Amino acid sequence: MIRIILSALAGVLAATTPATAQDYPPLPKPGAPKPYQVPASETYTLANGMQVTLIPFGQVPKATVNLRIYAGGLNEAGRNGLSGLTAQMLREGAAGKKGSDLAEEAAAMGGSINLGNGLHETTLGIAALSERTPDAIRLLGDVALHPDFPASELERIRQNTLRSLSVARSQPQTAANAALAAAYYGADSPYGRILPTDEQVKSYTLEDIKAFYRANFGAKRARLYVAGQFDPVAVKATIEQVFGGWAAGPERLRVVPTVQPGPRVILVDRPGASQSTLRLAWPSPVAGSPGDVPFEVMDALLGGSFTSRITKNIREDKGYTYSPFSSVDFNPGEGSWTFNADVTSDVTGAALKEVFGEIRRLQTVPVPDSEATGIRTWMSGTYILQNASQGGLIGSLAQIDLLGLPSDWITTYVPKVIAVPNLQIHEAAQQLPLDKMTLVVVGDLAKVEPQLKALPELQGVQFQRVTPF
Predict the structure, then answer these.
(1) 404: which residues sit within 8 A by CB, 6+ positions away?
(2) What is the DSSP string of 265-297?
(3) Which of 228, 223, 216 has the alpha carbon at shortest distance from 130?
(4) How far apart, in whole angstroms, are the C-alpha atoms of residue 88 and residue 363?
(5) What CATH number is given to the structural domain containing 120?
(6) Taking the CA atoms of the chain, what radius of gyration do you get in angstroms?
(7) 295 and 411 housed in the same domain
(8) Which of 8, 12, 51, 172 could form a disulfide with 223 if both were Cys (CB 3.0 to 4.6 A apart)?
(9) CA 380 to chain centroid
(10) How far apart are CA 301 and CA 299, in angstroms?
(11) Which of 394, 99, 61, 109 is nearest to 230 (CA)?
(12) Under a CB-based contact definition with an 8 Å cutoff, are residues 288 and 404 in contact?
């Protein structure tokens, strides 16, 4: 019986003709991108200087509460990693409650305490059921305003940090990022140091952590975002009750980085490595400046999207790499364009040749209208999707605050993208002159360096070997 069934099935399959593209109706053409309308929000400032933004948003009965405190790596004064240890210790105990108690409280609200720390800020967040939004605000208030910094937890946090650093330093991507930051911003700049040393982490005492907290946390450096479904009257009353008595503290620290442009080639040796990790960097327009949006469109077309020219070339066509990408990154008063890829060692030079070639092609040949329209449409849709969640919208609003962008930036961004002429995309590529680049290559230099020195674009450029850690 089984043999009969299989025989019949084989006959059916043999008689089936594979479908082709012609067997399906044509795909509908995409419509014109529509401007994104930001949900109505309310922003106000408490008497102590803390800013609050409330965004009634969506239909799901949840709300996201996010507290951003502008205290991070910029405030460490060379004591790298101290802000990170301080941030981690915040949720280990607060207002007389253990870290496990805080976690259980968050879970009872339908979420967990999320913690972030970077160069500019420390963030605390929680997503909670709508009716528990005031409780979530109280919980974040306990963590941010009344940390206990329990001595019993410091050594565990320290050892976790040391293990994480050890893993990070073993990764070629981290080595490339560290070498690029030091070369591009300078090793003495807070922007040029991305990791602390083990000795620094081991040296910090509980009093060091408490002192960093006292010196850098305060209402004037804080902004609270609440997005989602919530009772605005109850939320505003809770915010005043919880945060109204917070000491104002210092003004926000703003440091505009100084860039050290190339040309230069920075090499990090990893003998026996089967891949090379590449980083390319150039200065780019400052966020919100007239050249910003055209440059971002150019980036998406060149390397910043999955259908970009570089991706099609060295991934889809040549097979040199799996996931190359470029991005435009911003700090207050500064922007940079970076390209990232991990390529097979034997084709390191060939991959870079193609990247340089794509940059030159975009600089010299006008962009076809169909390609430009497609990338503008992709950027518009991606931006709208990015802001379709509570966390995504808060992230965009926080970026506006960090970079000092106009308050209507989210609303006007999509129309600005759509309005970028094809010629401006072509012109934006001129801001990537090869004689100003910084190139970092991490790999087996015995194999890779001869390939690099054979490239015409690198003739006469200084090569420097570094040890990033």
Answers:
(1) 288, 332
(2) EEEEE-TT-SEEEEEEEEEEPPTTSTTHHHHHH
(3) 228
(4) 46
(5) 3.30.830.10
(6) 26
(7) yes
(8) 51
(9) 19
(10) 5
(11) 61
(12) yes
> Of 197, 212, 243, which one is at a domain's C-terminal end?
243
Please give the full DSSP string across 419-457, using - where no structure is assigned: T--HHHHHHHGGG--GGG-EEEEEE-HHHHHHHHHT-GG
As a residue count, the chain comes to 469
Average pLDDT over residues 82-107: 97
User: Is 218 a domain residue?
Assistant: yes
Does 3 map to a domain?
no
Taking each continuous run of H as one helix and of E as one strand, the counts in the chain are 17, 14
DSSP-assigned letter for residue 251:
P
Q: Do 232 and 333 belong to one domain?
A: no
- Residues 255, 334: contact at Cβ < 8 Å? no
Please give the residue that has the higher pLDDT: either 191 or 39.
191
Which of 332, 350, 425, 290 has its CA nearest to residue 119? 332
Is residue 127 domain-shared with residue 80, that is, in the same domain?
yes
Place of tokens 């609003």: 397
Per residue in 233-268, pLDDT (tens digit) is 999 999 999 999 999 999 999 999 999 989 999 999
Do residue 95 and residue 226 come from a single domain?
A: yes
Question: What whole-number distance in Å separates Cα of residue 186 and Cα of residue 180?
Answer: 9
Torsion angle of C-alpha atoms 146, 164, 79, 194, degrees rounded to 10: -120
- Do residues 237 and 96 both lie within one domain? yes
CA dist 44 and 230 (Å) reads 17
CA proximity to 162, closest of 203, 119, 216, 210: 203
260: nearest Cα among 180, 355, 193: 180
How far the first Cα of the chain sits from its last, in Å, is 69
Three-state DSSP state, 400: helix
For 188, other C-beta atoms within 10 Å of its C-beta total 9
11 found inside a domain: no
Counted domains in the chain: 2
Is the pLDDT reported for residue 186 higher than 60?
yes
How far is Cα 127 from Cα 107, in angstroms, rounded to an integer?
Answer: 10
pLDDT for 2: 47
| Structural domain boundaries enclosing 144 | 42-243
Report pLDDT digits (tens) over 447-458: 999 999 999 999
Torsion of Cα atoms, 301 then 304 then 306 then 308, to 10°: 30
Phi and psi at 141, nearest 5°, equal -65, -40
- Do 52 and 136 share a domain, yes or no? yes
In a domain, 18, yes or no: no
54 and 140 both lie in a single domain = yes
pTM of the model: 0.91
Q: Are strands 51-56 and 222-228 parallel, antiparallel or unpaired?
A: parallel
